[in-house]
Amino acid sequence: METKILLSGLCVMFSCLVFGQPYLQNGGKVNKSNQVYTATKTDESGVLVSDGGSLTLENSKITTSGHTSSQEKSSFFGLNAGVLAKSGSEIILNNCTVYTSGTGANGVFATGKGSSVILNNDSIICLREGGHGVDATLEGSLTLNNVYINTSGAHGAAISTDRGGGTVVVNGGQAIASGEDSPGLYSTGTITVSNSIIKGAGAEAAVIEGANTITLTNTNMTAAKGTRDRGVFIYQSMSGDAIGNRGVFSMTGGSLSWPSATGPLFYISNTNGVINLSDVTITNSSPILIKAAADVWGNAGSNGGNVVLTADNQVLAGKIISDDHSSVSISLKNKSVLTGSINIAAITIDGTSTWVVTGDSYLTTLSDKAGISGTTITNIKGNGHTVYYDSSLAANSFFGGKTYTLNGGGFLKSLTSNNK
Length: 420
Known about the structure:
The chain is 5% helix and 47% strand.
């Protein structure tokens, strides 16, 4: 009898230490701590909660090594994710580690309306292609508080939403993506970040697809040149992953660093891009600040980018470039400064802001009544260059087709009056 009890006790002990098994929960409410969960099979999650279940897991480790049988199902539904909440379930991870080494193995995933994951002081590492750090789809939601994320595979953004949209709220922490085509943030939904560090170490700092948003407050962002050579990208792929055509990128405080010497800091194609910048420290090594242009997405002739940029107490540098299928509208307010040339755009400048012209520029419309004194414009520093405006447009009737002298040399001239 004693021998049987001893063996039974050893078996129980061994089962607790068994280098981990996957954890599956259908419904119910469970609290666990100090666990080790391991998944090694194809399409197998380390932790999966479904059918409205609720799991709180503390001080635990989840490790998966199996590959996905479908990258699409992994991206849209969380197949093969390290931790997966679906069918209206909730998972709370406190002081946990999630480590995935299989293809298509996202770290933490919430899919479906009512499904959510809350992460507090956790670490997430994803090594292979298609492994996003965290991902929310089909109205799932994620809340990250002081979470560390590192992804190194291709097509694996550190923080992402995908088909059907999702909501991600990030407070503090750090997210790094270093793989090819793996931005720091990829939004087909709503991503809100504050007091964090975001790095696209092999690609863009942020990408928005469709009518979706990224909002950042007091966050430091860095992009890398990568194969695409763009710092922040707003577009519509027409793949069905995201509906609509109005991507909104808003950033207040913090910093944005773009080290490329060639590609644009902001690139917008086949959609309407809204960019709001307020008191952001921008380091732009590229000669191009904004490029709005047609590319490989959408229907030829109607697939340009339409940009509305609002700068509030903001310093900006670089060219504004727009092709024949695109448009750019710029508003400078509250002591903002733009240094660069414009090939075609509308610009509004308040009495406290300044445009420093670095090359001959062409405007559709100019709104700058506060900067005009007689026939001199005081808040456009021409540096000897000429800025042309279209006097045939009603919005420019205030200028009367006249030529104005720019502060620091140069002129504002009408394009439709033989430049006189």
